[in-house]
Amino acid sequence: MKTAKRILTNTIRLLGMVILLAAPVFFIGCAEHEPPPVMINYPYEPDTPAPPPHEGLFTSEHGTMTFPGDGESVIIDFDTELSEYLGLPEGNQEAKYSFLSGDLPPHGHIPVRYDVAHMIRIITGEGDGIRSADIDIGEYADGSFSTGTGHTTAERITFFVKWNDSEDWEAVDFIK
Asked: Is 121 helix (H, G, I), strand (E, B) or coil?
């Protein structure tokens, strides 16, 4: 009887030690953790130097964009129709711009060089008067629109616009 009691006591002690040692592992496993760092999925960029920033006057039937060549500022002068469509002020406006990738989950659109861009972001004003437009860009050829590598050049930036829900998309070419 003493031996059975001793075996039972030792078994209970051993089981208690296993539970005490396993409990922290169980609770750590159930705790919330920071997700592992995610490598940003940058879009493809050719193994070539980035092209120089846009510089000069780009003209379309809906206005102009004048780039000083610094890679961040632009003077826009859009007509009423394009200004209203984009939600930007009409007429001569100082603005900032950046070219953006397509949607790259989980990061969304990220700044890229213009020769691989899918969008351009134009921001006017400051403080309460700030306005921003994300504009799809690319190329219109043979009846279809394309975005991405090689479609925006140093000589051409094409906006894709849909003036209203009943119309098809239209290309607005800004040509240097």
From this structure: strand
% the chain with pLDDT above 70:
76
Task: Count Cβ neighbours within 10 Å for each residue of 64-92 and write b for 16 or more, e otherwise.
Answer: bbbbeeebeebebbbeeebbebbebeeee
Q: Report helix, strand or coil for 75.
A: strand
Pairing assessment for the beta strands 63-68 and 73-78 based on DSSP bridges: antiparallel
- 129 — phi, psi (to 5°)? -95, 10
Rounded to whole angstroms, the Cα distance separating 115 from 154 reads 8
Q: What global pTM score does this model have?
A: 0.72
pLDDT band at 39 (very low <50, low <70, confident <90, very high): very low
Do residues 43 and 104 touch, judged by C-beta distance below 8 A? yes
Cβ-based neighbour number of residue 114 at 10 Å: 22
Cβ contacts of residue 119 below 8 Å, gap of 6+? 99, 100, 101, 102, 109, 134, 135, 136, 137
State pLDDT tens for residues 69-120: 999 999 999 999 999 999 999 989 999 999 998 887 787 888 888 988 999 9
> What is the four-CA torsion angle of 126, 162, 43, 122, rounded to 10 degrees?
-10
Could you state, in order of their start, the residue ranges of all structural domains in the chain? 1-33, 55-175
